């Protein structure tokens, strides 16, 4: 049985980003939001409408490709990377004029997942490849380039960091296809209620943690997110929602992205986006810690004057701390451009460092309360 490295070597070969030379339109559409926000229901409705228009559609559901498990952070990131590689291979085969490329199943002679004996011998990465291929086959979506129908790929995942969505946008840009994204905004309490009715629940603490980390599309800060639509889903998906989404998809199909021409400029832009995302999350973490410290002081019967002074000092500390962190992060992504920034570890370090620095301020104000 070939290892996954045999598959990944294919992606190291130079490719052309101009896969639409023959006029075939395609787009990647990211569906993002909290667990139980309604993404899967929306994806199903959207897929049905797109097919009614004669568009080929592939629904890529991350939860089906990456099974729920207590993954290590590095393992989880690798699986997400493998999904993107599967998607890239599908795009290349669907849009390229290179008719001699063999399919994944031809190259590896992989059977479907019903062959339990073979499945047990696969590595987890190989399993992602197999599940992607099975997903494509079950939806009767060909990966050959013969069809002239527009191709819409719907990506169903939480995509809570904008850097996750940016990876998809860059893939769309590489292949000169359209890109758009839909953010389902749903109150956390509604998501929690829906989630508790599921057969496979996401733990409440994980869902709430994801809510804190969620970075909704922001076209002002990130111009590449301008093809975005935010839907409020507290009461479910409406016909009006679907009509707006079909307009968004049509626009993405009609306006493919331009391939990257200057790699150095693109890499610098990638580093800035990575740093911006990290600093935004760090700011959220520090804000939460300041709020917790003030709440604790309030419970300790601190006077309004003490609370006011404490808030002032903690916010000043936060501003100085984030300024130092910004320099550190920008330096890190510049010196080690190929090394991915471990967001989870960064936020843990930020939390520990800020708490250490704020301890002296909190101790001083506790003494003031005791002396008073």
Task: Spell out the blueprint of helices and strands.
Blueprint: H1 4-8, E1 26-33, H2 39-52, E2 56-61, H3 62-65, H4 73-95, H5 104-108, H6 116-120, H7 124-138, E3 151-156, H8 162-174, E4 178-185, H9 188-196, H10 204-213, E5 228-232, H11 239-254, H12 263-299, H13 304-335, H14 343-371
Parallel strand pairs: 1-3, 1-4, 2-3, 4-5
Structure description:
With 372 residues, the protein is of the alpha/beta class. It has helices at 4-8, 39-52, 62-65, 73-95, 104-108, 116-120, 124-138, 162-174, 188-196, 204-213, 239-254, 263-299, 304-335, 343-371; strands spanning 26-33, 56-61, 151-156, 178-185, 228-232. It has a 5-stranded parallel sheet with strand order 2-3-1-4-5. Helix 4 (73-95) crosses helix 7 (124-138), helix 12 runs antiparallel to helix 13 and helix 12 packs parallel to helix 14. It is elongated and about 75 Å long. Mean pLDDT is 78; it is low at 1-23 and 98-122.
Brief summary:
With 372 residues, the protein is α/β, with parallel strands linked by helices.
Mean pLDDT: 78
Helical proportion? Answer: 55-70%
Overall geometry = elongated
Strand numbers in spatial order across the main sheet: 2-3-1-4-5
The total count of helices amounts to: 14
Please state roughly what percent of the residues sit in beta strands, choosing from under 5%, 5-15%, 15-25%, 25-35%, 35-45% or over 45%: 5-15%
The profile of the biggest β sheet is: 5 strands, parallel
Secondary structure: number of strands? 5
Query: Which blocks of ≥5 consecutive residues have pLDDT under 50?
Result: 1-23, 98-122
